[in-house]
User: Which sequence fits this backbone?
């Protein structure tokens, strides 16, 4: 999905009807009675060739207290802040009401891309309301009829340039991964040159209240992000550019990710989804733990997600200044790390204090080292010498009495490093032997912590004669009682 669009407006202007039309299903309950929608509903919208995420919201109420209407309004306002595009709907038959003017003023302050739609615009009865909509100061209103499908082409025409803009932004943020090594490019090589235009992209992820925003403020040298003792202050992924110790970086601050069972509020589900997108945008992912309660189940899931996405991982333990028994605690952390996250064996474990700034130099060095390893290249000659030594030290298994032969190895990709081993019977090679090779690569070629992809291929796959139909020589046909070809 290239962007997110929130549909907002007073109760009973037709938001859920438009939502159902865009997603092509009756997902949202629709009724003439105002206030049917109370929660946020997310769906995958289709409009022409565009695919995007659409959010149906509760009707904007004027209440600002702790009543149900007040809480619904705050939820809707937060969805507006998170969305890339906001579609503000009014009822063209009712015209512009005082509440529409109030909400239009709020939307101008909360979202950069606000579109105005005059719904229920079929027929002459809506003409006056469409003209009146210009007074809201949100540009030319689109005349829609969500119930009858009128005006969808106008909505598509307005969204198309915005979709291109957001697609370009996503292409700019998304790093190159699984980069194929061209022939002749097998020599050892380092990471790309970091510049202000192409900075190192780092995502800081973790559970709520681990100190992610505080850490980024300390790196930035100023209070750019809202912080506090309450959990869950950050709602969406925010990217900030900075130069940290002469290293150009784009740092993504993300919403805290709780256990799935505890994520009840729909908005928090969207926040977590936004955090997962930030992991995909990053080259290095910093998993921030709380020293008081490290390595909870959600921490492990977050770290495993970063590994499965193929990103370099650094584990940082925050609030280290408040830890009384530092040496004993560090020993316990390392033991738990090696036991609970074997797929990230050797990844750096750094202790920091976002509050005091202690340990940030080590964190900076660990991020650069993780990026260097993520881009690591090893020549084919070195790999094959290494493979020969590994096989000699620990031969592969021999299923049904036939020894599996590992014949040749080369590096095919970087970001993360990916290797191909040509062998016999690759489907019968055990996972334990593959782990033996991956662990050997980490140790012998100094690639701690980074995801390593190891592919086993059969040499028969590269045999051009594998599927060719066999022909019978003419001299054999004579013995089989068949006439030779020349008779």
Assistant:
């Amino acid at each position: 999905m290239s962007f997110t669009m929130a549909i907002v407006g007073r109760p009973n202007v037709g938001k859920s009807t438009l939502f159902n039309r865009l997603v092509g299903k009756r997902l949202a309950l629709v009724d003439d009675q105002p206030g049917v929608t109370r929660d946020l509903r997310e769906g995958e919208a289709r409009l022409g060739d565009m695919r995007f995420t659409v959010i149906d919201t509760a009707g904007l109420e004027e209440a600002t207290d702790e009543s149900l209407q007040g809480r619904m309004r705050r939820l809707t306002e937060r969805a507006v802040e998170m969305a890339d595009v906001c579609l503000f709907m009014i009822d063209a038959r009712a015209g512009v009401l005082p509440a529409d003017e109030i909400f239009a003023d709020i939307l101008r302050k909360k979202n950069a891309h606000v579109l105005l739609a005059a719904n229920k615009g079929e027929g002459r009865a809506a003409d006056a309301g469409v003209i009146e909509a210009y007074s809201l100061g949100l540009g030319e209103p689109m005349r829609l009829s969500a119930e009858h499908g009128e005006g969808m082409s106008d909505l598509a025409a307005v969204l198309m340039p915005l979709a291109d803009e957001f697609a370009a932004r996503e292409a700019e943020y998304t790093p190159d991964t699984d980069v194929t090594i061209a022939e002749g490019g097998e020599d050892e090589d380092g990471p790309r040159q970091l510049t202000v235009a192409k900075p190192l992209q780092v995502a800081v992820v973790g559970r709520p209240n681990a100190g992610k925003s505080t850490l980024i403020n300390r790196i930035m040298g100023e209070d750019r992000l809202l912080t506090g003792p309450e959990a869950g202050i950050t709602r969406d992924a925010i990217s900030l550019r900075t130069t940290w110790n002469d290293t150009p970086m784009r740092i993504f601050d993300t919403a805290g990710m709780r256990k799935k069972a505890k994520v009840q509020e729909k908005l928090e589900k969207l926040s977590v989804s936004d955090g997962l997108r930030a992991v995909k945008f990053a080259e290095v992912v910093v998993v921030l733990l709380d020293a008081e309660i490290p390595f909870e189940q959600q921490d492990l899931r977050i770290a495993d997600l970063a590994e499965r996405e193929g990103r370099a991982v650094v584990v940082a333990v925050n609030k280290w200044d408040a830890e009384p028994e530092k040496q004993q605690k560090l020993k316990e952390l390392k033991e738990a790390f090696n036991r609970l996250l074997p797929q990230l064996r050797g990844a750096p474990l750094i202790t920091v204090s976002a509050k005091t700034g202690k340990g940030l130099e080590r964190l900076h060095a660990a991020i650069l080292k993780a990026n260097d390893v993520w881009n690591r290249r090893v020549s084919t000659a070195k790999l094959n010498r290494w493979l020969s030594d590994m096989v000699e030290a620990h031969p592969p298994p021999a299923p049904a009495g036939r020894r599996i032969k590992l014949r040749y190895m080369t590096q095919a990709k970087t970001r993360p490093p990916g290797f191909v081993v040509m062998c016999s019977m690759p489907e019968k090679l055990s996972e334990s032997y593959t782990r033996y090779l991956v662990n050997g690569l980490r140790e012998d070629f100094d690639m701690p912590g980074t995801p390593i992809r190891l592919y086993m291929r059969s040499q028969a796959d590269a045999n051009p004669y594998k599927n060719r139909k066999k022909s019978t020589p003419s001299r054999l046909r004579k013995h089989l009682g068949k006439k030779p070809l020349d008779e």
Remarks:
- The two ends are 68 Å apart (CA to CA).
